[in-house]
Amino acid sequence: MKTLAKLPVTIVTGFLGSGKTTLLRHMLDNAQGRRIAVIVNEFGELGIDGEILKQCSIGCTEEEANGRVYELANGCLCCTVQEEFFPVMRELVARRGDLDHILIETSGLALPKPLVQAFQWPEIRSACTVDAVITVVDSPAVAAGTFAAFPDQVDAQRKLDPNLDHESPLHELFADQLSSADLVILNKADLISPEDLARVRLEVAEELPPAVKVIEASSGRLPLDVLIGLGAGSEEHIDSRHSHHDHHHDGDDHDDHDHDAFDSISIELPQADESLLMDALTQLVVEHSILRVKGFAAIPNKPMRLLIQGVGTRFDKHFDRQWGAEEARTTRLVLIGQALDATLLEAQLRAALSV
Question: CA 46 → CA 49, 68, 301, distances in Å?
C-alpha cells in the first residue's frame, strides 16, 4: 500500500485589511491545476470572506467550490481549534489523496502560534505539515505609525515615551504575527515612497528571526512558487518562537484572552440609499472604535447586491452578484472594533438612513 506524503499547509495571517483574502484569491486564481482546499477563519457572524473566495475562478463548478471552502465562524482560531479546527482538518486528512495543498486564512485578530502548534497533534502531524506561515503586513499603515489601517489604533504613547516598559495589545499582536512567520509580505508597497518602505522593512525586521525572508508586493500579486513549496515544517520549530501571548495558552483557561477586547456585532437593515449608507458608515468609523466593516447592502432599484469592505475610513464597494429570486433583499453588516455598543450603532445607522 502506497504511503501518502504529508499534505502541505500554508497559514496566512495578518491584520484586518492587510490583504490576506486578496492574496488567497490570487493564489487560487493561479493554482495551475493544484487541488487546493481553503479554511477561512472569519471573525464575525457573516461568512463574507468565504463568499468572496468562492467567487474565484479556480477551474471548478460552484458546487465543487462550496465543498472546498471550509469556514470557521467563531473568530479566533487559537481559541476554537478543538471545537472546529480539528474536525475540519480530520475531514481534509481523510481526503488528502485528492488534495495537493491546504490554505488557511486566519482572522485578523488571531494568534498564529497556537494554530501552528495544533499541527503537533499526532493525528494531524502524521498527515500534514505547515509548509509556511505567511504574515501579510499593511505597509502604509506601518509607515504611518500604526499596525493596521485605522487611525484609532495609533500606538503614539508607546512611541513617544521610551521609558514605557509595556506595549499596546495591538503592537504585541503585530509582533506575534511576525514572530511566527516563515515569510513576510510587505503588501501595498506601491502606495508608499521607497524611503518609507525601507523604514517599514527595518521595523518589521526587528521582530523577525534572522532567517525569515521579507518580500514586497502590490495587492498580493506574487508568483505562486514564491508562496508555496517553502517546506518550512513550522510545527517543528514553533515552540522556540517567542510570543507575547504564550502565557494565555499554558493551561485550559482562556478567559483572560486579549481578544476579548475586540467586539464583532452584526446589524441587519432594510434597503438603503448607497450614498447615505456609505456616509453613515464613514461617520460611524470616525466616531467609534470601529476597525473593520464588512457586509452586503440592498440598494433600492438595483438588481445586484453591493459588497462593502472597509478598513478605517477606507471603503471598497462593488456589485458582486444578482439577488436570488427567493432571497430577502436586506442589508447585513458586521462591525469589528473595541468597546462597541450594538444598540447605539444600529440606532445611529437607522437614524442616518431614516429607516
Answer: 8, 18, 24
